[in-house]
Design a protein that fits this description.
The structure is a single chain. Helix content is about 80%, strand content about 0%. By secondary structure, it is an all-alpha fold. The two termini are about 30 Å apart.
Length: about 450
């Protein structure tokens, strides 16, 4: 691996890890933040919701901007802005400032996330994307698992503000490196304008959907706005000469299948964690720390599964690998639905981590490989949107089912969601390394434009 590729990989991993760490430490910070700032519970919840609304609604547009102006530039802007906004949250005098700056964090987080995948697609040939994506996924798992532990230690020793300063230095360092070190050449699309009306309609659709899911059950107006905006977006995309979603992305059955699989897997995964957490604490009588210890096999299995998946993909292909992994996710949810002891819970968590880690690597590789280099950013934005909307959908469904029917029914339904995601695997490619001869994408797989 060349020095340039190593730097691209390190930057991609750092960007993904910073976002994952920021999200996982927040839940530990919120109770202390509420007490010290005199905030209400609703205001504290908005410190999460405001970020989610901003990031989920802008990911696809941010990816398109990276396709047009360069992923490394957009990554640099995202990292620098995220670092400055994090420092601002750490210095915020009141909860209103925290919420506002969390929106700013979401905007810059949306800029950097698709760019982390776009840079990989531009720097690595298609047959060598597996391991970089696996490394990225493993580090995300480590960051998500370490976040609550690191956050708890910092809150206890220094205070809640220290948690937000945690990201400042690495964000600024990698942002400056991205500005100063030349990156891989990226072909700029000729004569393609940014679809601002489409971007606004998609942002309205996703923001309304997220808000509606967060506000369940009183969310009819938000759902209605989301549906109307989605219909208007589809109508606009069919008529405009420069759509936000290029035809090589929306026309790819493999990309659509991978996105559907990610949506189902992340919904089942996050919904299960939500329901099982309540089961462990309310039914089994465990404290938060004891519950977290029983979840460690999940993080360990996810971290170990990611690099193994890169090897399996070369031999079995994405279709078989992802299909088996989705079945493992469904099995894990069913095991957890019937677990009453520590051993069974840990076994269920280990299966869930292994299955979900495999799905993440396989689906991400399909999305990044199947898109042309010129559309890698918008494809990455769609992938990140799926893994942001999916958890919100899963937690909303899990919460409603838990209240109505109990944990066993809720988990059984979530297992069914995972199995529906397995159906999406049928349209994924076979052996991905052999897909250098794939004919479904215009342009050379290594990034050389096709003759037109």
């Amino acid at each position: 691996m060349t020095a340039r590729r190593r730097l691209v990989l390190a930057s991609s991993v750092a960007g993904a890890a910073i976002v994952a760490l920021d999200g996982s430490v927040l839940t530990v910070v919120q109770p202390t933040l509420q007490r010290e700032l005199g905030a209400s519970l609703a205001q504290v919840q908005w410190t999460s919701t405001a970020y989610l609304l901003a990031v989920a609604s802008l990911l696809v547009s941010a990816g398109r901007i990276g396709d047009r102006y360069g992923h490394q530039r957009v990554f640099a802007l995202g990292m620098l802005g995220f670092g400055v906004a994090s420092a601002g949250v750490g210095l915020a005098p009141g909860v209103g400032w925290v919420i506002g700056l969390r929106v700013v964090q979401g905007v810059f987080g949306a800029l950097l996330q698709p760019a982390t995948l776009g840079m990989l697609r531009a720097a690595f040939p298609p047959d060598r994307l597996g391991m970089p994506i696996a490394v990225r996924t493993s580090v995300i798992g480590i960051a998500a698992a370490a976040g609550p532990l690191v956050g708890g230690a910092l809150v206890g020793a220094v205070g809640w503000r220290a948690v937000f300063f945690l990201n400042v230095v690495p964000s600024l360092v990698f942002g400056v490196l991205a500005l100063t070190v030349p990156g891989p050449r990226q072909r700029q699309p000729n004569g393609v304008r940014f679809d601002l009306p489409g971007a606004l309609l998609l942002a309205l659709c996703l923001a309304s959907l997220i808000q509606a899911l967060v506000d369940l059950p009183g969310s009819a107006a938000g759902l209605a706005v989301s549906v109307l905006a989605a219909l208007a977006f589809v109508r606009h995309e069919r008529r405009t000469a420069h759509p936000l979603l290029p035809s090589d992305v929306v026309g790819s059955a493999a990309i659509r299948g991978a996105l559907g699989m990610l949506l189902a897997a992340s919904a089942a995964f996050s919904g299960t964690l939500f329901v099982v957490t309540y089961f462990l604490q309310d039914t089994m009588g465990l404290g938060p720390f004891q519950s977290a210890l029983r979840g460690l096999p999940l993080a360990a299995a996810m971290v170990l599964a990611a690099p193994a998946t890169a090897v399996v993909l070369r031999r079995a292909g994405a279709r078989r690998t992802a299909g088996v992994a989705m079945a493992v996710v469904a099995l894990a949810v069913l095991v957890l639905s019937r677990s009453t002891g520590t051993v069974a819970v840990c076994a269920g968590f280990a299966l869930l981590g292994a299955g979900f880690g495999t799905v993440m690597v396989a689906a991400t590789q399909v999305v990044v490989r199947e898109a042309t280099v010129e559309s890698a950013g918008v494809a990455g934005g769609l992938k990140q949107t799926a893994v942001n909307v999916g958890p919100t959908l899963g937690v909303a469904a899990g919460s409603a089912l838990l209240a109505a029917s109990g944990s066993t029914t809720a988990l059984s339904v979530l297992a069914g969601v995972a199995l529906t995601g397995a159906l999406a695997c049928l349209v994924l490619p076979g052996r991905t390394v052999a897909s250098l001869t794939h004919h479904g994408v215009t342009g050379d797989r290594a990034g050389v434009p096709a003759r037109r």
